[in-house]
Amino acid sequence: MKGVKPLIIAGIVAASAAVHANDLNKVIDKSSEITKSAAQSQTKIDKIADSMQGRLQQFKTLNKEIDGLAVYNAQLTKQLNNQIAEMQSMNLSMDQVSIIERQITPLMMRMITGLEQFVLLDVPFLKDEREKRLTSLKAMMERADITSSEKFRRVLEAYQVEVDYGRTIEAYSALLEVNGKEREVDFLRIGRLELIYLTRDSKLAGSWDTQTKTFAALPDSTISQINKGLRIARKQLAPDMLTLPVHAAR
Fold this sequence. Notes:
By secondary structure, the protein is α+β, with helices and mostly antiparallel strands. The chain has helices spanning 4-121, 127-141, 148-165, 223-233; strands at 169-178, 181-190, 194-199, 205-209, 214-217. A five-stranded antiparallel beta sheet has the order 1-2-3-4-5, covered by helices on one side. Helix 1 crosses helix 2, helix 1 crosses helix 3 (148-165) and helix 2 packs antiparallel against helix 3 (148-165). The longest helix has 118 residues, at 4-121. It is rod-shaped and about 160 Å long. The protein starts with a helix and ends in a 17-residue tail after the last helix.
């Protein structure tokens, strides 16, 4: 019986150890579950933290975009206001242009009429060319495909041509009735001071008399000077002094 007690005690101890081992395993398993759960919670926390950080960064980016858009909108507002002011100014200018156009057309008509009267009373040089220019101006005024500004430019151009005649010397050929017979002659125009003709055979010459409105015959002594003047006008001689009678200045 003495030998049985130690066995019983050993069995109890073994059983107790087994119980303790089983409890320990449960504790370890529970601890593992807790650790695993904590790890999963940490992962969720990390994801939430990352998400919050991303949202915070996105919020900051959006704020910067909003600030940029505010500046851009302010600039657009200024540009829009400037464009509105410019449009108002253009509308006012267009109204003024319409008024000017209504006034400038009668002015151009009067200018053409005045130019026509001037040519009629002037020394009769280049008659065909000057009459053709006037006819062209009159026809131009009836055309709708030419702007008022272009019409005015051409009228002023015609005036400028007439002004230039008064300070230039020119030689040209044309037909003229001399002693009742139409002949080809050379004309020498010295500004508006003198208009002289010389027949091709250099035998007859005359100058325009503003008093009688006819050509007056010139003496043979002037023919050499007329020929010299013609050559100067044609740039065949250098400019030089001419001795000629003056009728146009009377």
